[in-house]
Amino acid sequence: MGGMDAMNGMDDAMAPARPAAIDDVVFDCCGVLVDWHPRLALEGLYPAGELDGFFAADDRCGFMYFDDLHDRGMDYDRLCDAYEEEYGSRLGAMMRAYAGHVDRTLAGTVPGMTALLADLKACGVGVWCLTNWGRDVWPVLRDRFPELFGMMDGVVVSGVEGVAKPDAAAFDLAVARFGLDRARTAFVDDSPYNVDGALAAGLQAVRFSSAADTRRWLAERGVPHQ
After folding, report:
1. Taking Cα atoms as reference points, which of 50, 58, 166 lies closest to residue 98?
2. Is 207 buried (19+), middle (13-18) or exposed (0-12) by CB count in 10 A?
3. What's CA 188's distance to the chain center, in Å?
4. Given a cut of 90, is residue 58 above it in pLDDT?
5. Alpha-carbon distances, residue 217 vs 11, 45, 85 (angstroms)
6. Are 129 and 156 in contact (CB under 8 A)?
7. Quick one: which of 127, 29, 136 has its CA closest to 77?
8. Confidence of residue 42 (pLDDT cuts 50, 70, 90)
9. Contact 183, 173 (CB under 8 A)
10. For residue range 83-92, what is the model confidence (pLDDT) as tens digits?
11. Which tens digits make up the pLDDT trace of 97-139?
12. Of 27, 116, 165, 172, which residue is the least packed, with the fewest Cβ within 10 Å?
């Protein structure tokens, strides 16, 4: 018996540690809470072929690079000048058109996510948002979805703060600002890089695919929700 007890003890020691209970959930915004499609800003204004190049996955026109600069605090008035200087007047005009039609990129809330937020809050779970979004167009996003952001216990906007995911500083700021316990906080984002950044910062994290999958993941970790 003693040998069996010792073996059971070894099994317990070798078993992976269960994650801590979750008290708070931090959500990304675009791609998780809000259905965001940057191409919509320019559809109907330029030929499809030009849009294909402007938003190409290889970023040959620099849209993603400059979008990251915008997320980190460079407002569009300065950004568009810098972009045009590097890429020329034709693409510069496209970037200015994009900046003027950011509202068109916001297609609506992601199905099921508003209900999930409401259910989490009803069960006493803290609900927060950490978003990569520009300072100058933050009012556009906030005012488009007042019900959604009205449910948030707090929001950190990268462009306002000058730090962006997946940098550790962004997660550290959210933890400090919201008063979170890292080990007992879950982070939900559609970007694998941001999920990796959250894990490195000591949070529990999952890559978003749908509201149903997020509910399931949270339920498996004992998070109460209706």
Report:
1. 50
2. middle
3. 7
4. yes
5. 26, 41, 46
6. yes
7. 136
8. very high
9. no
10. 999 999 999 9
11. 999 999 999 999 999 999 999 999 999 999 999 999 999 999 9
12. 172
Q: Beta partners for 131? A: 157
Of 222, 24, 218, nearest to 112 (Cα)? 218
CB 54 within 8 A of CB 91: yes
- 156-167 mean pLDDT: 98
Reading the block at residue 209, the tokens are: 């695919």
- Looking at the chain, how many residues does it have? 226
SS (H, E, C) the chain: CHHHHHHHHHHHHHCCCCCCCCCEEEECCECCCEEECHHHHCECCECHHHHHHHCCCCCCCCHHHHHHHHHCCCCHHHHHHHHHHHHCHHHHHHHHHHHHCHHHHEEEECCCHHHHHHHHHHCCCEEEEEECCCCCCHHHHHHHCHHHHHCCCEEEEHHHHCCCCCCHHHHHHHHHHHCCCHHHEEEEECCHHHHHHHHHCCCEEEECCCHHHHHHHHHHCCCCCC
CA pair distance 119, 103, nearest whole angstrom? 28
